[in-house]
Design brief:
The structure holds 4 protein chains of 4 kinds.
Chain B (H helix, E strand, L loop, with lengths): L3 E10 L2 E11 L4 E5 L6 H9 L6 E6 L2 E2 L5 H7 L1 E4 L11 H14 L14 H13 L15 H14 L4 E5 L7 H17 L3 E5 L3 H7 L2 E6 L2 E6 L1 H5 L2 H13 L1
Chain C lengths: L3 H10 L28 E8 L6 H18 L25 E8 L4 H13 L5 E4 L3 H14 L2 E4 L16 E3 L4 H16 L4 E7 L2 H16 L3 E8 L7 H8 L5 E5 L2 H13 L6 E2 L2 E2 L1 E6 L2 H7 L7 E4 L8 H14 L5 H20 L4 H8 L2 E3 L7 E3 L6 E2 L2 E6 L10 E7 L1 H4 L21
Parallel strand pairs in C: 1-2, 1-3, 3-4, 4-5, 6-7, 6-8, 8-11, 11-12
Antiparallel strand pairs in C: 9-10, 12-16, 13-14, 14-15, 16-17
Helix pairs in contact in C: 2-11, 3-4, 5-6, 8-9, 11-12
Chain D lengths: L1 H31 L6 H19 L2 E10 L5 E7 H16 L1 H23 L9 H23 L15 E3 H5 L7 E3 H23 L1 H11 L1 H6 L4 H23 L9 H16 L4 H18 L2 H6 L3 H16 L14
Antiparallel strand pairs in D: 1-2, 3-4
Helix pairs in contact in D: 1-7, 1-10, 1-11, 1-12, 2-4, 2-5, 2-10, 2-11, 4-10, 7-8, 7-10, 8-10, 11-12, 11-14, 12-14
Family (chain D): Belongs to the binding-protein-dependent transport system permease family. LivHM subfamily.
Membrane topology (chain D): Multi-pass membrane protein
Protein name (chain D): High-affinity branched-chain amino acid transport system permease protein LivH
Chain lengths: 399, 253, 446, 343
């Protein structure tokens, strides 16, 4: 189906189902229950899951396939965001030209940086990409402020030209981003019993993009091009002595992953028309590296899982404060309640970084292949149990 | 004029003259061995042929065209394939995939951005790879991770990958180094079979005289960066200069 | 989607029935009149403070103040500044009878992260007002978001002119003072202390706040006769300022102005003192260092180096007016140490918001904004204060402070030298440093 | 002229810190082949050893002074450090005053222990894992370490002064015949430079002249062969990790008076120290040291007003520009070896 084999097509279907039903899946707890804090089914976070998923999928095309570890991919995301916001400022609030421009601009930027950085391999390559990205960030933060609006981030104002759109709405506000009139920020709320599910246009826009990006990634993984990239990772020497020029292969992978990053950046700006320079900082580049490794580098679904994992902690765990903890444990006797809260306090709220750090260590120590391996192990375990059950039932009559 | 003509090639590394003034002509469809004691410059010469090193002086012509100044992949595309001392294969890939890569390289050239069509659907390449694996007795291992194969199988795979490109010149750098006797004999048989079936020129660098004398039609002896003798195997065996070169080495050791 | 604070409260009173869901209706075309209209017995406020990164301690102090304000609004504790506030419409029964709940988030002092966490408070938790923050970049970014979402933004610590200048928004309000006011308050004191014949050398953090601070203090000192020798931009990420300080030795500058905040300020001041600048004599004058924006929390990091150094601050716990004393008392009793200026502004902002809602009789951001615009109040620690309608900036007295020579405790680092009256720091709404940009019209969302 | 001399001094001083951190990082790279993202955290822990000793010495008992009041109007509790109570105010004060130099002694065993625990408890399981996994696990560790420090010490920088005796600055200008007060340099920074030189010299001497060092150097060149010789290289590598941790820690202790330590100072230095190591060339100790000083000096010069006025913002990016230029001109950095971390 769609040029995919059965296994890949199933994977695509599963991802599609997860993405389409995310507003339900991520909102498992009734809105007024104590566990509602763990609900992640609100538009902003769902958009982030999907956008960072795209970013990580793209990064994985470079890192997972070729083994080239770029420490500067956030620069492409940042450039994509800036391009999109400029498009909103100058042309119109339609996201289509904005996203197209951001993909093109970040692709060109990736071509430039990739062409230079790919002259080196290994850690030398990593440091070159890091250096370019850090330069971009620092300049964006200071000297390039006329283009980037520095620390505050590039944002829309009431006096932007928007030649194909309107400068300001009739009510005197800044117009909103849209897809041929469909407003990205519009949300429908569905209340079912104690649950409340939010369906956001912007989210579904991102979701469609994710599915396209994911589908394209599968095709790349299964194509001769993907195989060549894996061969580059495996043995460059043999590549050269097999009459293959590795340079254009790696450069193509670099540019493609840069364009994925640009798409993510453009989408991010389309959901929330502000582009902050921190998006380009090395920590942001490091984050996508962590997402990919955490999920499982070189696997199709891993990076998406990794992205979801990190964004979930950043957005959910950081919001659990002392009051919330007390509300969970108020049934306990006071002394114990305080003790439990005191312990947990370290790991949530302002301590969310600690939890994340510990989880990084645990996952990589016990699941060398990342979260995907965790899933595989779980699957194997279940199958084995299943098999045991079967053998048990089969062997019973024989006795 | 042979298919490969090396004229006056010299190469220095700092103060060390690795190759002095090497002249060598390899005739088409022959097996030509280059032997010599350690440090004689055999590997340096080989590296000059495939573009890994650029000689300081002289010329290297393959089929009337100069290979100098070309990158390894360009030289490969001219029709020269190389087998390494330790098998260089794509360890992370399966045997089948290993086989398909040279097939792609042969059909699509040094670079083709073919990112949409799946490998599976490319029957032409699959068939070619299958045929080659069949030919080289690798078909049963097609789904194996190539890194987990035995050394002999890796060597076989590497040779198969080279042959899949239908090269006119195959360079072998000590193909039996570190192999057990039985594997060595298998490799000899394999090379003989290849020679029998195909129109191919083979240049082999080898330490193991058993291998050399089983295969070579002509032998060049290299010592201290210069060719000592070049002749048919029968004449090499008792040649005094050769003895001196090797015994000298033995005495030094 | 009510947060469970609601639930907790309800459980405690044993009345679980009929809890109306305070659904977040941001960006929806739902039935509500405005974004996140509170329909149940509670109202949710969102406190967005830095919990990680260099300003985490400042963020923690802001959070303490918010918690205290919520307690006081709900009628718990001693009421703090609610007693001394000139407006007495708040009754200690929440806001408009609705119990005040709150949610918190981590800005990480990054525009992106701050917007993400503010969005989650609006979209997920149904917050009707967002407050807090410890940097101007974040304040401007979140203010923009609140404008789009249709909720009120009560800025926390943000000192850049832009927040109520070129980036001002109809839904955003700032109680904290700004760079212009710092300059205007500080310059006369500097002139009287150090004379009018001085040559100043500026080191400025290379980002928007730094630039507006430099512009303001430069203009203010120059108008008093000072000469500006040089203004040098330093990278925000710099940790060692030695290579920016040594060139000063070669100039004839006799005052160093550090337009730095936070970690930058601690390091640049420490470095400047290390290089012996304070012992230096230039043209027969003692070399001096000035830090236009002081933060007591940060000053601790610079230790003894702050002694005798002038700067300005929005508020200080040693003020003797009834409002300040009431606040210090209730904060100090609860947490064991005096509040910072960041805590003060956040506490005041929360009360001002609640008061405006109460006076307007509605949570509708447009009604609240109207109640705040042009509102004059007193008793919140800064004397008589005006929320100016033109730019949503508070105008009040500004404190000029100096590093204390003999501190009695680790909190007792600054002493108030002068309370600069409000008239002296007031500027026209169309002042060039604040021009460009417009409030726009208030957005109620929905 | 005097401006240039000053910037060279600044560069040497910054370079000392970079070189010390990069030295430890390279030791770990070179010997263990591990990409240690927690190395900055070790530097930070070192600095917090100084902070902790200072706090420890300042542990106080309280006496109530009824004549003064605190911020709530209660009688003021005056704190007196126990040390001053035990040794008398003068000696006690002197001990507190010298807390940073004392912290050097205090930190060495702590840092070595931290290094051992890290290596035995975590890093050794990652020797044969891909570099990506090493990055993830050490990055996780760095986060955990800095969050723990944040939890106990807060996020604000903590002043950790040098002894009073070293607080002033030295007038080079007067000595060299320039105008007085034009070339002055703080004592403590000069001490830092000298200290760094001693440590770097010590590490080199250790590797050069001891049997232990020779084995380790051989191990850096070819781990497998040395292992085949029947030498227990693992044990030595553990010790090397402890040594690298101690070097990073000492760099941190001595750095504390220059800039007040805070919990994320390790992360601030992390990226920079990686750039330094790579520019120096993977696996080369002299390269790391040379690159540290080179980048330190470049950074100082780039922040001169004369240069900034030609290229605005150059001081923000000079290190990265230099890194790019050097890596493009020399494929393996200044002194890197072929094949180390190239795949």
């Amino acid at each position: 189906m769609l040029g995919l084999n059965k296994k890949d097509f199933t994977l695509l279907l599963i991802v599609a189902a997860l993405v389409v039903f995310a507003p339900f899946i991520l909102n498992p707890f009734p809105a007024d229950s104590a566990m509602a804090q763990f609900n992640a089914g609100y538009p902003d976070l769902m958009q982030r899951f999907v956008i960072f998923g795209i970013f990580a999928i793209g990064f994985n095309i470079l890192f997972g396939l070729t083994g080239y570890l770029s420490f500067g991919h956030a620069a492409f995301l940042g450039v994509g965001s800036y391009s999109a916001v400029w498009m909103f400022k100058l042309l119109s609030m339609n996201i289509v030209p904005a996203i197209i421009l951001s993909v093109i601009v970040s692709g060109l930027f990736a071509m430039l940086i990739g062409y230079i950085s790919l002259r080196r391999t290994g850690i030398y390559f990593s440091i070159l990409t890091l250096a370019f990205a850090e330069m971009s960030f620092r300049l964006a933060y200071s000297v390039l402020t006329p283009i980037t609006n520095g620390e505050t981030g590039l944002q829309l104002t009431l006096d932007d030209p928007r030649i194909l759109g309107e400068t300001a709405t009739a009510t005197g506000s800044i117009p909103v981003t849209n897809f041929f009139g469909i407003e990205m920020r519009a949300t429908e709320v569905m209340n079912v019993g104690g649950w409340s599910f939010q369906f956001n246009n912007g989210y579904y826009m991102c979701a469609i993009m994710l599915l396209l990006a994911f589908y394209l990634a599968i095709r790349i993984f299964r194509s001769p091009f993907g195989m060549m990239l894996r061969a580059v990772k495996s043995n460059q020497q043999r590549m050269n002595y097999t009459g293959l020029n590795t340079k254009p292969y790696t450069l193509a992978a670099f540019v493609i992953s840069g364009m994925y990053a640009g798409l993510a950046g453009g989408l991010m700006a389309s959901m929330d028309p502000l582009a902050g320079a921190e998006r380009m900082q090395w920590t942001a580049s490091g984050e996508v590296v962590l997402m990919t490794i955490l999920g499982g580098a070189g696997t199709l679904i891993g990076p998406v899982l990794g992205a979801g994992f990190i964004k979930y902690f950043e957005n959910i765990f950081s919001k659990i404060n002392e009051q919330v903890l007390h509300s969970w444990f108020h049934a306990l006797p006071d002394g114990i309640e305080n003790a439990v809260v005191w312990v947990l306090e370290h790991f949530v709220g302002s301590g969310w970084h600690l939890t994340l750090g510990l989880l990084f260590m645990l996952v990589v120590t016990f699941l060398p292949g990342g979260l995907v391996e965790g899933g595989q192990r779980l699957g194997r375990l279940l199958r084995r149990k299943d098999a045991e059950k079967k053998t048990a039932t089969q062997s019973t009559p024989a006795e | 004029m042979g298919i490969l003509d090396v004229k006056n090639v010299g190469k220095r590394f700092g103060g060390l003259q690795a190759l002095g003034d090497v002249n060598l002509s390899v005739k088409e469809n022959t097996v030509h061995a280059i032997i010599g004691p350690n440090g004689a410059g055999k590997s340096t010469l080989l590296n000059c042929l495939v573009g890994k090193l650029i000689p300081d002086t002289g010329s290297v012509m393959f089929d009337g065209q100069s290979v100098l100044g070309r990158t390894p992949y360009e030289i490969n595309q001219m029709g020269i394939s190389r087998v390494f001392q330790t098998p260089e294969i794509f360890g992370d890939l399966t045997v089948m995939e290993n086989m398909m890569i040279p097939c792609f390289a042969m059909r699509d050239g040094a670079f083709k951005l073919n990112g949409i069509r799946s490998v599976e659907s490319d029957t032409e390449i699959r068939e070619r790879a299958e045929a080659m694996m069949e030919d080289m007795n690798l078909a049963e291992k097609r789904h194996m991770h190539s890194a987990s194969m035995s050394r002999g199988d890796k060597r076989r795979l590497e040779i198969a990958m080279c042959l899949a490109q239908e090269p006119r010149l195959l360079l072998l750098d000590e193909p039996t180094a570190g192999m057990a006797r039985a594997d060595t004999n298998n490799t000899i048989d394999l090379l003989k079979e290849i020679k029998q079936k195909r129109d191919i020129t083979i240049v082999i660098i080898e330490h193991d005289m058993h291998v050399v004398f089983s295969l070579a039609e002509r032998i060049t002896v290299l010592a201290q960066g210069t060719p000592l003798v070049e002749d048919v195997p029968e004449n090499i065996k008792g040649h005094p200069k050769v003895r001196e070169a090797y015994l000298g080495e033995a005495a030094a050791a | 989607m009510t947060n469970f604070l609601t639930r907790r409260g309800l459980l405690k009173t044993g009345a679980v029935t009929g809890a109306g869901l305070a659904l977040p209706t941001i960006f929806t075309s739902g039935a509500s009149a405005f974004t996140n209209e509170p329909t149940g017995g509670t109202v949710t406020l969102g406190f967005n403070v830095p919990q990680s990164g260099p300003y985490a301690d400042e963020g923690a102090d802001e959070l303490r103040a918010f918690q205290l304000a919520v307690e006081h609004l709900n009628g718990e504790g001693d009421g703090g500044m609610m007693q001394t506030f000139s407006s007495q419409v708040l009754e200690g029964n929440g806001i408009l009878g609705k119990k005040v709940e709150y949610v918190t988030g981590d800005t990480q002092t990054k525009s992106d992260a701050a917007r993400a966490s503010a969005k989650s408070m609006i979209e997920k938790d149904g917050a009707v007002m967002i407050s807090g923050g410890s940097s101007s970049g974040v304040a401007v970014a979140v203010q923009g978001l609140c404008q789009e979402a249709g909720v009120i933004f009560m800025a926390g610590l943000t000192h850049s002119n832009d927040t109520t200048g070129k980036d001002k928004k109809a839904n955003g309000f700032r109680h904290f003072f700004n760079a212009y006011m710092s300059g205007a308050a500080l310059a006369p004191v500097l002139a009287s202390q150090y004379g009018t014949d001085r040559k100043a050398y500026h080191l400025t953090a290379d980002y928007t706040w730094g630039w507006t601070q430099e512009e303001s203090i430069k203009a203010a000192t120059e108008s008093l006769g000072w000469e500006t020798v040089n203004t040098v931009r330093t990278p925000l990420a710099a940790t060692d300022f030695s290579s920016y300080i040594t060139p000063i030795l070669q100039t004839d500058a006799d005052v160093l102005i550090l337009n730095h905040y936070g970690g930058n300020m601690v390091n640049s001041l420490t470095n400047a003192v290390q290089f012996g600048l304070r012992e230096k004599m230039v043209n027969g004058k003692q070399f001096e260092i000035v830090v236009p924006l002081y933060s007591r929390l940060m000053a601790r990091g610079a230790g003894e180096n702050v002694k005798g150094i002038f700067g300005s601050t929005n508020w200080h716990w040693s003020l003797q007016d009834a409002g300040s004393q009431a606040f210090v008392k209730s904060f100090g009793t609860k947490y064991g140490f005096p509040p910072s200026q960041a805590a003060h502004t956040c506490y005041v902002q929360t009360l001002l918001y609640a008061d405006a809602v109460a006076r307007a009789g509605s949570f509708n951001p447009c009604a609240v904004a109207e109640a705040l615009e042009g509102y004059e109040f007193d008793g919140l620690g800064n004397g008589k204060t005006l929320y100016r309608a033109d730019d949503h900036q508070c105008f009040k007295d500004v404190l000029v402070v100096k590093g204390k020579d003999n501190p009695t405790s680790e909190f007792d680092l600054l002493e108030v030298v002068e309370v600069t009256p409000v008239d002296q720091v007031t500027y026209a709404p169309d002042h060039p440093m604040f021009s460009g940009g417009a409030l726009g019209s208030c957005n109620a969302g929905a | 002229m005097d401006a240039i001399i000053l910037q060279i001094l600044n560069g040497l001083d910054k370079g000392s810190a970079y070189a010390l951190i990069a030295l430890g990082l390279t030791l770990i790279f070179g010997t263990l082949g591990v990409v240690n993202f927690a190395h900055g955290a070790l530097f930070m822990i070192g600095a917090f050893c100084a902070v902790s000793l200072n706090k420890l010495l300042n542990l106080s008992f309280e006496t109530v002074d009824p004549t003064r009041t605190d911020f709530l109007g209660n009688p003021l509790k005056v704190k007196t450090p126990y040390i001053e109570g035990w040794f008398g105010p003068d000696l006690g004060h002197a001990i507190i005053d010298w807390s940073v130099p004392l912290a050097i002694l205090f930190s060495i065993p702590i840092m070595i222990a931290v290094g051992f625990i890290m290596e035995r408890g975590l890093i050794k399981h990652f020797y044969r894992r891909p570099h990506a996994d090493q990055i993830l696990v050490t990055f996780g560790l760095a986060i955990v370490l800095q969050e723990l420090i944040k939890h106990y010490y807060g996020a604000n920088p903590i002043q950790t002064p040098a002894p009073d005796a070293f607080k002033g600055s030295f007038d080079f200008g007067a000595m060299m015949g320039f105008d007085p007060n034009t070339i002055i340099y703080p004592y403590w920074r000069m001490i830092y430079f000298a200290f760094a030189a001693v440590i770097i010299g010590g590490v080199f001497a250790f590797l050069q002249f001891t049997t232990f060092g020779m084995v380790v150097r051989a191990g850096m060149a070819d781990r497998e062969t040395v292992g085949l010789l029947g030498i227990n290289i693992d044990k030595r590598f553990t010790i090397m990790f402890g040594l690298a941790a101690a070097v990073a820690g000492l760099a941190g202790v001595m750095y504390a008076p220059i800039n007040s330590p805070n919990y994320h100072m390790g992360m601030d230095f992390l990226v920079l120290s990686f750039v330094v190591v790579v520019v120096g060339g993977m696996g080369s100790l002299p390269g790391a040291v040379a690159a540290g000083f080179l980048l330190g000096i470049l950074e100082s010069f780039a922040s001169m007003n004369e240069i900034k006025s030609i290229i605005p913002g150059i001081d923000q990016i000079v290190i990265y520009v230099a890194a790019i230029v050097i890596l493009l001109a020399r494929p393996r950095g200044l002194l890197g070896r072929r094949g180390v971390m190239e795949d």
